[in-house]
Design a protein that fits this description.
alpha+beta, 3 domains, 12 helices, 53% helix, disordered C terminus
Length: 276
């Protein structure tokens, strides 16, 4: 099968999967968001086809049941990883939608999660593990722009595709597992206790851990609840010049699709508030 035929099948699978998810969840995506997601899939294949075709177990569910929060609530931890066994080596991959810079600049945070997964794999499953890695699926801006302009400048795309290094090895340390599970339990207690306070505006203004963009731009813009968040609204006000708040805020509203989609979301929210 040629590369063009493989990518044609990937596009077909992508459309079928999207239609299935839309039917199951009742939600749709804007065309720009859909095209961006498709682009991520295609670039992932072109860059990491060797890894993708070597996966021996995909979407492996790992479970750590029977845990107890600091306040005595029972909980469990579940994760999904891909496993590659090759030449007597076993590598665990965890896919993240984050950028390579964000992961490389904040390895310890990702190591906490992967160390728990490694503990489950090695201790509870009794399987050997030689390496653990994060695969960052977020495309660098230069690569994304080059991919959108592939027809007129294919050499530019190949250049930025070669520069992209999305596989990041994460150091293993089994000693952190107990503390990480404890932290997960504390978060469960916060959720069950209704503690959902947003971070202060100073956190939103500072760079996200391991990143270059402000926390609000890198993290908050992916949160569907940001328009009802006091810290986020304050961030927009502070970043707007006098008299420009409405225009600035409308730019963020545009992230939610066209007029029809925004109306549908507003009506749905109003119905939810009114109750049955």
């Amino acid at each position: 099968m040629t590369d063009a035929e493989v990518e044609a099948r990937i596009n077909a699978f992508f459309e079928d999967n999207y239609e299935l998810l839309k039917l199951e969840g009742g939600h749709s995506m804007t065309r720009d968001s859909l095209d961006t997601a498709r682009l991520q899939v295609l670039m992932y294949w072109r860059k990491l086809r060797e890894v993708a075709t070597s996966v021996t177990e995909t979407e492996v569910k790992l479970n750590l049941p029977g845990q107890t929060t600091p306040e005595g609530r029972p909980f469990g931890i579940e994760g999904v990883v891909d496993i590659v066994r090759e030449n007597e080596r076993t590598v665990m991959y965890d896919l993240k939608t984050h950028s390579s810079d964000q992961v490389r600049g904040n390895r310890d945070a990702y190591a906490q999660q992967l160390n728990v997964y490694a503990h489950i794999w090695q201790t509870l499953r009794g399987q050997p593990l030689d390496e653990q890695c994060v695969i960052c699926t977020a495309l660098p801006r230069d690569l994304r722009e080059a991919a959108l302009d592939e027809t007129s400048n294919p050499a530019k795309l190949q250049h930025f595709l070669a520069l992209w290094d999305p596989i990041i090895q994460i150091p293993s340390d089994a000693r952190t597992v107990g503390e990480t599970v404890h932290q997960f339990g504390a978060v469960v207690d916060q959720i069950e206790g209704g503690e959902f306070g947003p971070p202060p505006i100073q956190t939103l203004q500072a760079p996200a851990p391991g990143g270059r963009l402000a926390f609000a731009r890198d993290i908050c813009r992916n949160c569907d609840a940001r328009f009802s968040c006091g810290s986020y609204r304050a961030y927009i006000r502070v970043g707007s010049r006098a008299g420009q708040f409405e225009r600035q805020f409308s730019q963020y509203l545009d992230d939610y699709g066209d007029d029809d989609e925004r109306v549908l979301r507003r009506v749905t929210a109003e119905l939810a508030e009114d109750g049955p």
